[in-house]
Amino acid sequence: MTMSQRMQGQPMIILGEDSQRVKDKDAQEYNISAARAVADAVRSTLGPKGMDKMLVDSMGDVTITNDGVTILTEMDIDNPTAEMIIEVAETQEDEAGDGTTTAVAIAGELLKNAEDLLEQDIHPTAVIKGYHMAAEQAREEIDDIAETVDSDDTDILKKVAETSMTGKSADLDREVLAELVVGAVQQISVDADDGSTVVDLENLKIETQTGRSARESELLKGAVINKDPVHDDMPTNFEAADIMLLNEPVEVEEADADTQVSIESPDQLQQFLDQEEAQLKEKVQQIVDTGADVVFCQKGIDDLAQHYLAKEGILAVRRTKKSDIKFLKNIVGGQIVSDLDSASETHLGHGSITRDEEGELFYVEGDGDEVHGVTLLIRGSTDHVVDELERGIEDAIDVVASTVADGRVLAGGGAIEVELASRLRDYADSVSGREQLAVEAFADAVELVPRVLAENAGLDSIDLLVDLRAEHEAGNARAGLNAFTGDVEDTFEAGIVEPAHAKEQAVSSAAEAANLVLKIDDIIAAGDLSTEGDGDEAGGAGGMGGMGGMGGMGGAM
User: Fold this and answer.
1) pLDDT confidence of residue 330
2) pLDDT in tens, 428-481
3) Can 2 be counted among the known catalytic residues?
4) How many domains, in total, are found in the chain?
5) Is residue 67 domain-resident?
6) Which of 70, 101, 102, 197 is catalytic?
7) Are residues 217 and 263 in the same domain?
8) CATH number of the domain to which 397 belongs
9) Spatial separation of the C-alpha atoms in residues 270 and 439, rounded to whole Å
10) What is the CATH number of the domain that holds 232?
11) Phi–psi pair at 62, nearest 5 degrees
12) 46-70, pLDDT tens digit by residue?
């Protein structure tokens, strides 16, 4: 009997004992349900009436947020497919700054619609091709629908900022905060040679302070340093200061770890201490000789050196963050000193320094008109409030910056999505083959946005979609949902304005993520695919039992 005859009828085992394999339909179902569970986790946060999530990490730290990317990255997700969808949110955040929930929700809906097509025996390749064609067409249509805006059109930019903050904790004071955000972005915008506008976010810093209301937030030309002077007797206000940025400790130079000092008499000890004192005095004298009034030190300052600096009338701050030192360099000029021996007057920066009334913060302003940095000081009542405010404002800054650089805006409130779906359905008529069904499925998926906006506002999503479609059929391309009034109206006029760049990115990212998931027909895992429970649970169907863990996570949110 030959070897090949002996092998017939017996499966060849090539995988290890603990590994699992999920194939074809099962693999697609597994992946789609994992991706949809992620999308379901953030759906309820979308829009002005969206709810918040409370996330508690393994250390017990609590985050309360409405921000899609924060929710997804903070959640303890242990599922390979789910992690692919989270990457969509992270890409969206990096590229556009906002629209993360939209991107993930559309990706989930694309996969749900793809599942229906797969059940009709349409091959995944046809769905993928159709989705790709629809995404390309969608980008063109968004560009066609978008309206241009000048980088100095403050009114529109404020509306963009307010729309971004709506539904987040920044919502309550969004008018005040939107003004600060737009002011900050305009301060750091520069007109490039080719006529475009470049926004340098490196020159914008966000600082937070608790104990006051959000409407007391302010925009400051210069830096805010949340530090105390190292000595109580130091002056804290200078109208015109020479400022040293120091990246060297003002401490006694440490001996090597294996150096031994044997002291045999009290005189020797005194001599040793005198030597240390002289060394510190010399360092302080080097600072005095440069003519510095203020020292921001990235490292430590010895207690004795603090005393000498105070005697000289020099303000010193120690353990200043590296990022603050870099930011201060932009504002006051000068150079960062890393060796006091070679420090001179030419290394110093110049500016004014004031201490705030509460005695918590230093305000540092540059000397001269060319200020290269602004600080947005966000105030809120508690740490949780301030953290969520900061997330909302960071998104608003990114969105306004992207609008200034890109120069295109759209009507919000689902208006763009309904118009896009209508145009994609027209485009589907020109697509031949089974891809046509995928393009139509894509159009349906995009309409998820107005549906969810309505659901989250407690309105009837089906009635609303019917009304919206009728308005768009009649040629009202800006008709969307105003979730505050519950009416269908011209959302652009109502001040609900979104950046075109973020919307393009969201549609593209969602399509790419859905296609990435649909292309997988075989999952081979070295261990258990389940996300909770032990390996015995996920039997038979090749790990489908494990999806309970993922589904449960979606429900828990």
Assistant:
1) 80
2) 999 888 999 999 999 999 999 999 999 998 999 999 999 999 999 998 999 999
3) no
4) 3
5) yes
6) 101
7) no
8) 3.30.260.10
9) 86
10) 3.50.7.10
11) -105, 135
12) 888 888 889 888 888 888 888 888 8
